[in-house]
Amino acid sequence: MTDFIDVSLINLIITRIYTIVAALIISIPIGMMQSKTAAAPLPLFWLGLNKLFLNKLIKLNVEKRTDQDLFFRGLFVVCFFICLSALLVIAFNFLPAVSADIHLAQIAFLALAISTVSPLLLNRDIQAQLANNGKLTAALESKLSICTMRALSKADSSGINRCVIHYSVYSFIRHLIAPILFFLIGGLPLLIIATLFLWLSYAIGKASLSGAYTYTITVFEELLSIVPNFIGTTLIIMATFITPRASFKTALHALSLKHSGHLMPGVHPLAITAFAINISIGGKEKSRYGAAIERPWYGPRDAKAKVDGAQVKLAQYMIIVAQLLGLFALMVFI
Hints:
2 strands, 4% strand, 70% helix, 12 helices, globular
């Protein structure tokens, strides 16, 4: 009996890995098409949630309300998304009855929940604009602002480059590692739940808004980040061995407690990236909704906050290497 369970579990994991590889391949042309047509290079499922819920959720955060009222508004939103998650999971349980091939449905949904080449293509367009005009077009600025939830109207080229690096690391964790990990562990139901709450933390979490409205979702945000952060941290550290001009020894300094960021999603990998390529990233920012966002500066003491296009490419090269290492690990399991 034990042998049968072990064999069944291994076969299930292998089947899910094939699904992941297929979804990764499909996500590449999706990302290429998005770079020309979409409002922002986010996973398509996230863009759908943006259209359905984002403006409504932001309107609930009325600054004149008391902290208690805002807290309960945030709690209501989280409860609503818990119910929505349950309904979607129940709906997808009927997929075998309406779909000739449940495997294809899983590939399709996973492909809509991940993003692979979008940060690279976004940076390509940004660097071309900065080189030619010294600033971004309104459309390109809007794309980066939606991805990072930052106000960029007053940002110089260095500030824009820091945002691109931030988004590249953020996307690696939230749009790639997290959905793949949750699908591998719990299949489509866990992927649905995790994707909804990852999006919700992007929309109204403490990286986008401030105050009591964000308290409840922050709990989910930090819990969802623990394992993806650990995997992302490990892969990026390994990638420093292969990345030219990246320092493995310096990157390890980011693992100290003062750089932990209280388990905030993307902070460990972001700090490691900053230390590895000798840049300084963080500080005071404003979200696209006017909220003050303040984070500590990450990077070596002698690093400068001025970041150029070459450093952005170096950071993205390191992330690509980390992605390939992760894919290699999956393929080895097969």
